[in-house]
Task: inverse folding
């Protein structure tokens, strides 16, 4: 009976973390959609220099795919965390690994060099939050909160 009550009423901290994870990842989805078909003109209108815009326009497909898997995996994983399902961990792991691939891409493709410290800080924060969500899912699983 206790397990059933625990399943129906997840701990408040877990719901808060999952809710914040959802909000963060929905914001990431909005950011992702702005990267789909940028033009030099639209990027420069947003304040990028011609060199920065050129780097952003030439981002390879695999980096966009990594971004997509990261953000949509984060949304799905955070949603699954709300519902306390055991498949949460592999989904959040996939999201984290995708963000790590994007991080490597930002280094090798010159995004960090073009956009500077602010881009490094943003993507480092993204990776850290993805890792924290995965840790919460792992901890929740060990506490038998995911079933």
Result:
């Amino acid at each position: 009976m206790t397990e059933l009550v625990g399943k129906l009423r997840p701990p408040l901290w877990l719901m808060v973390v999952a809710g914040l994870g959802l909000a963060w990842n929905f914001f990431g989805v909005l950011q992702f959609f702005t990267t789909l078909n940028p033009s030099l003109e639209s990027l420069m209108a947003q304040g990028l220099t011609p060199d920065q815009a050129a780097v952003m326009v030439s981002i390879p497909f695999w980096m966009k795919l990594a971004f997509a898997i990261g953000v949509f995996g984060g949304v799905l994983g955070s949603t699954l965390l709300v519902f306390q399902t055991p498949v949460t961990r592999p989904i959040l792991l996939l999201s984290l690994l995708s963000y790590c691939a994007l991080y490597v891409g930002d280094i090798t493709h010159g995004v960090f060099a073009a956009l500077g410290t602010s881009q490094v800080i943003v993507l480092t924060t993204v990776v850290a939050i993805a890792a924290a969500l995965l840790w919460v899912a792992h901890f929740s699983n060990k506490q038998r909160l995911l079933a």
Observations:
- The chain has one domain: 2-142.
